[in-house]
Amino acid sequence: MSIRFEKVDHLYSPNTPFAFQALTDVSLELSEGKITAVIGATGSGKTTLVQHLNGLLLPSSGSVIVGEQTIKAGEKLKNTKQLRKEVGLVFQFAEYQLFEETVLKDVAFGPQNFGVDELTATETAKAALKTVGISEEDYEKSPLELSGGQKRRVAIAGILAMQPKVLVLDEPTAGLDPQGAKSMMDLFRRLNREQKITVIIVTHNMEHVLEYCDEVVILEKGRLIFHDSAREFFEHPQFMERARIDAPNIIRFREMCRQKGLELSPDILTVQQLAREIAKRRKKR
Q: Which domains are present in the chain?
């Protein structure tokens, strides 16, 4: 599903003393079938940007084209239900969205809300729960009984049960321990590769961007300042400085080596590649 922003502005609380320009003249085309990171300093407009993708926010000017639907400033959103089925948005701390008596009922709610019969919705919910790694013994539990990581997986399953073409995640690993965060990111990569879901992730974690993401979008004070491949992004550290984000450890180590006279290839992006390169150079000596 194609996604395009055309000269999008977003102004919060217009015509009031609290007016705030969150996005300014954003033109952007997001690649289909990729994992794209949206990064930037706090207040740069990341969440505002992604909330335009399923009509939670409407542009103050310009337009957002999602598939065959165009969201224009000043026009009432049409086919809202279909848009939100195709573009699933998972909020930061998505577990706060859980409300049903049981895990299974919560995940089945979305499909039923779109007119799917109860039996089919239940089977769809079970498949989604299996995908995110929730065991059958938890299906009849209250969502409140689960751990934080499990709650987040259930919330994501609730989106997946609606079979979206695009999955948008706002800081999906916030508050998780390193193992839980890695498991969550592995899940998103699997969804992207196996189910061909386009994944858009708002994040501050550059280690995740390095390991999992294909492309990077950077916002600065509501303006788009970069959109290219993740590799191109990591070859230009000045953009991380502008976004007030620390580079991944491997990039910082590479830079430290360069300052000490040891040039390492920009292709080296993992500890394993680094170890092999250092071992190779030692053998040559």
A: 3-247 (3.40.50.300), 248-285 (no CATH)
